[in-house]
Amino acid sequence: MPLLPDQEYEWLEAQTAPACLDWAKKQSQLTANKFDHLPRSKALLAEMEALTSTQVQTPDFWIWGKALFRLRKTTANKQGRLERCERSSTGDDNLPPDATDWKLVVDIDELGEKEGRIFEFHSYMECNLFGTDGERLLLLLSDGGADLVEMREIDARTGHEIPDGFRTGPGRISTAWLDIDHLLICHSVYGGPKTVGDWPAQVHIWERGTHLKDAKLVFTAPLTDAITVASTLGPMNPGRAIITRSINYSTFAYSIVSLDGSVKELSDIPKGQSMTIPIKFTAQHVVVSLAEEATVCGRKVPVGTLVAYDIATDAHAPGDSKLSIVYEPEDDEVNLGLWGGGLAGTRSRFHFAMSKRGVERRMAAEYVAGGSDDGAGAWSIVRSIPTSTGSRSFIVSTDFYSDDIIVRETGILSPSTLWIEHEDARQSVLYAQNAAFDATGFVLRQLTAESADGTQVDYLLLSPKVPHNEAGKAPLLMTAYGAYGISFPTTYLDEMLGGLSIVPWLQAGGSLAIPFIRGGGERGEPWHEAARQKKRQKSYDDFIAVAETLIKNGFTSPECIGVFGMSNGGLLAAVMCTERPHLFGAVVSDVPLTDMLRYPTMGMGGAWIYEYGDPSDPEMAKVLRSYSPFHNVSDGVKYPPCLVTISTNDDRVGAGHGRKFAAKLKDAGAASLYFFEDDSGGHNVSDSFKNTKLLVRRLVFLMEALL
C-alpha cells in the first residue's frame, strides 16, 4: 500500500475509538502469532516466569512516624500487597522486620478482582498519610495503569475503607491533608479548567462530610501552565499545604494554602529550577535546585545550587531574608537524582546525593539559627557518606517526625540493599535483593565516544568477560533517554533496562551499551540544555557516535546492534530507525512520541513544549519535522526490523504516536514491522514483572534479529 498523506493517519489518534481498537487488535494478533510460537519463545517464557518467582523484585518502602509501609509484589500478586508494620518491631539491630511483623493493609490484586478491574497502586505516600503512626491513608488507584486515579480513604491499621470518608471517581488528582477533616485537592474528576498539559488548574479545600463538587475553590493556575500540583508540607506544618505551578519544566512558582483558605505566594524563590515534583521540604524550609544562575543572599550562585526558603518565620518578614543556601556544588559536581531519590527532606535535615566524575556521595545538611558570620541562620553539612564504587544511592523515603531515612544502594551488577538510616547514623537493614544472575562473568566499563561536534560522550558497556561471538560480531543492545535533565537509571534490573528481560539476553552472550547523551542530566543542567528544542539533534548525534565507535573499534557490527527505549527513549529508538536505518539491526520503540508536529494534541504533550519546542512556530516546526520519525518514513527505504509496543490506556503520551508510526512504516513496505498494543499497563506497559508475555515477545524479536 502506498504512503498516504500524513493527515490520513490522524484517525489512529483516537484513544478508544472502535475502529482504532479493531486495527490495533488485528496488528497485535499478527505480532503474537509471529513470536509466540517460535522455538525459543516457550523456553524464554519459562525462564522469565522462573525469574519472577525468585523474589528478585525489590519492594517499595516508606517510613512514617511509628510505622513502616511496603508494597510487595509476587507472581501471585503482580499489582502488590500494601503492608504495614510498627517500627518498634524492627528493634535496634540490623535484622529486617520478620515476615510476621507485616500486616496486610490492601491486596491490590484482590481489590481489583472484586471490582472487575485491574487496579495499580499510585505511591505518593508522603502526601497521602496522616497521623504519627500513619493511621489514615488516601489510597490512589489507577485502572489499568492510566495516569487517571481514584481516591479512597483507608484506615491503614485495619485496611478498611473509612465509612463516608474521602472518596473520588477517576481523574488527575493530587492532594494533601490540612487536618483530619480537610484536604487540599487539585483534581479533574468533574472536568473543569485544565492547563496545556491536560492537568487540572483549580485547587480546592474539601471538608469531610461534604460533596467534592462543593469543595471551596482557593486557587486557579493560568491555563498556559504545564502542570499544577497540590502537596503536603508535612505533619510539622498542620493546617498548611503547598501548590506547585510548573509553568514549564524548568520554571516553577509556589503558594502556601492555609486551612482558612488564604493563599500566600512564595515569590522570592528563584523561578528557574530543575524539576522536582512534589517540592521537597523540612519542617522549616522548602528547598529547590537551581537550573540557572541566580542572586541569592546578595551573591551570584551557580546552576545546581540548593536554595531554601523559610516557611516557619514571621509571614511579614522580607521575603529575600527567608532565603538561604543549603549547598553550592563544586566544579563538575551534579545531582543525578533530581527526579527521584537525589533530594529529600526530613524533620530538620535536607538530604541530597552529589556526583563528581563518577564518584558519588550522599550528604545531609542542617539549618543552624545564627550559624553565619553575620548572625543569620546557615546550613551545615552533618553527614557525607561515599557510595560504593560502581553503585548509586537513592533516598527512597524520609520520616517527617524524625530525621530517619530509607536508603537504597544498587548498581547494574549489584542487587539492591535497603536500610533505615537513623538520625544517629545507625543502620537497620530492611531488604537485600536476590541476584538474578551471576555477575562474575561480566565486565562493566565506562568509555568515551566523540560526537559529531567534537563533544566527548561517556557510555557504559556491559559485556561478557569471555566473548560468545567472533570479533566484531558481538550482539549488542543500546538504550538511552536524553531529555528533561533526567539521568539514566543505572540500577539493578531497572525497567528502562528491560527489567528481568535483560537477564536472558546477557546469559545468551549479549552485551549492553548505555550512552549518556545530551538532554539528560548526567553532567547537570548544561548537559540538558545542550539538546533542548532546536538543539535536539545533538542528542541523536551522541547516540549515533557511540554506535559508530563500537563498530569502528571492532566490538560489533550494524547488523548485530539493537536499539530499545521507552517514552522519550522510544522517540530516540524511532529516530534511529528512520534517520540511520542501516546502522542498526533491530529497533524496539516502546510507548514513544513519533509525531513531533502534533505531540501537543496527544496525551499530556502540551506540557512538553519547553523541552521539544512549539510546532505552531514555523521555524521550530522545521526543526521538529527534521527528526520527527512519523514524518521521515519514506518509500523505498530498507528499514531494520522494528517492534512498536504501546498501551491503549497510556494517557501520558497517547496511543496515537505508536499506531501512526507503525501504520506508516507498514504502508512504506517495511518488511519486518511489528506492533503490539496491550489494553492495560498505561505508560509502564513494559513492566517485566507485570507483563512478562510482552517482554518475552520483545526479547524473542531481538534475539531472532541479532543473535
From TrEMBL:
UniProt catalytic activity: Hydrolysis of Pro-|-Xaa >> Ala-|-Xaa in oligopeptides
Enzyme class, top EC level, equals hydrolase
Q: Which residues form the Peptidase S9 prolyl oligopeptidase catalytic domain?
A: 505-705
| Entry's Gene Ontology cellular component terms | cytosol
- What Pfam families does the record tag this protein with? Peptidase_S9 (PF00326), Peptidase_S9_N (PF02897)
Kindly list the biological process annotations in GO that this record carries: proteolysis
Q: Which GO terms describe its molecular function?
A: oligopeptidase activity; serine-type endopeptidase activity
Q: Which keywords fit this entry according to its UniProt record?
A: Hydrolase, Protease, Serine protease
What InterPro entries does UniProt report for this protein, alphabetically? AB_hydrolase_fold, Pept_S9A_N, Peptidase_S9_cat, Peptidase_S9A, Prolyl_oligopep/macrocyclase
Instruction: Indicate the transmembrane segments per the record.
Output: none
Query: What organism is the protein native to?
Result: Plectosphaerella cucumerina
- Tell me what this protein is called: Prolyl endopeptidase
Q: To which protein family does this belong? A: Belongs to the peptidase S9A family.
Q: Which residues form the Peptidase S9A N-terminal domain?
A: 8-223
EC numbers on record:
3.4.21.-
